[in-house]
Specification:
The protein is mainly beta and 226 residues long. The protein has helices at residues 2-9, 129-132, 219-222, and strands at 28-29, 35-39, 48-50, 54-59, 62-76, 91-100, 103-110, 115-121, 137-140, 156-164, 167-172, 175-181, 194-198, 200-211.
């Protein structure tokens, strides 16, 4: 009886499913010229097409509490590169509150091991990869493991992530696949939304985030991060 009361007191019911949670943030499409690569290059200046093994980018004039990436997966990149940690990984995902390369939230869909990984990287007083390297990562656990499946060549996908307070939610093709609570250290992060990939090729048909004038600063300043 006490358990039931506690459950209801927090606004839940024993039969409710967290998969019913829907996005709240209003997102605005980001044009290709607003994408600021901080590592790697776009294959075309007029489209968000990525073929390089390492790609990092933020979206100018966005806030970093929510983002959505719609993309067509083309398979592994023609050349591959290990992560700085030495791991051999293929993945694509979103950056939230991307203050800089050393302080950021990652929501990554891994293709080498089909799962969604969420991590917070915090390195106070550091800004670029030369300063922090692979230090400061904290993996965040989901409350309920969900199968996300493997990326299939030629298929189109929609990956969305959104912060609601300290809670982070992620959807793939409108299906909630991840929910967890971020550490309190993530509250201090302030920065735009973006995306990153490692060792995969894809074309993004749509990237969207919360509009916020001047939130990312200049592309020239951000390009020195990685």
């Amino acid at each position: 009886m006490r358990w039931l009361f506690a459950f209801v007191a927090f606004g839940c019911s024993p039969t409710s499913s967290w998969s019913e949670t829907r996005p709240r943030a209003t997102l605005v499409e980001v044009a290709p010229h607003q994408i600021c690569p901080t590592h790697g290059q776009l294959a075309r200046p007029d489209a968000i097409a990525v073929a390089v093994p390492t790609f990092r980018a933020v979206a100018l004039d966005t806030a970093g509490s929510a983002a959505e990436l719609r993309f067509t997966y083309h398979g592994p990149a023609s050349t591959t590169r290990e992560l700085a940690s030495g791991a051999d990984r293929a993945q694509i995902g979103l950056k939230l509150r991307a203050q800089d390369s050393c302080n950021v939230i990652y929501v990554m869909w891994r293709d080498d091991k089909p799962t969604l990984d969420v991590s917070v990287k915090i390195n106070r007083g550091m800004r670029n990869n030369a300063e922090c390297g692979t230090r400061g990562y904290e993996k965040v656990r989901t409350r309920d493991k969900r199968n996300v499946g493997a990326l299939v060549i030629g298929n189109q996908y929609v990956l969305r992530a959104e912060l609601q307070g300290d809670e982070l939610f992620a959807w793939i093709n409108d299906r909630l696949v991840w929910r967890g609570t971020l550490p309190t250290s993530a509250r201090v992060l302030v920065g735009p939304a973006g995306f990153r990939s490692d060792n995969v090729a894809y074309t993004a048909t749509f990237f969207a985030a919360i509009s916020a004038d001047g939130a990312a600063g200049s592309c020239r300043a951000r390009s020195s991060e990685d």
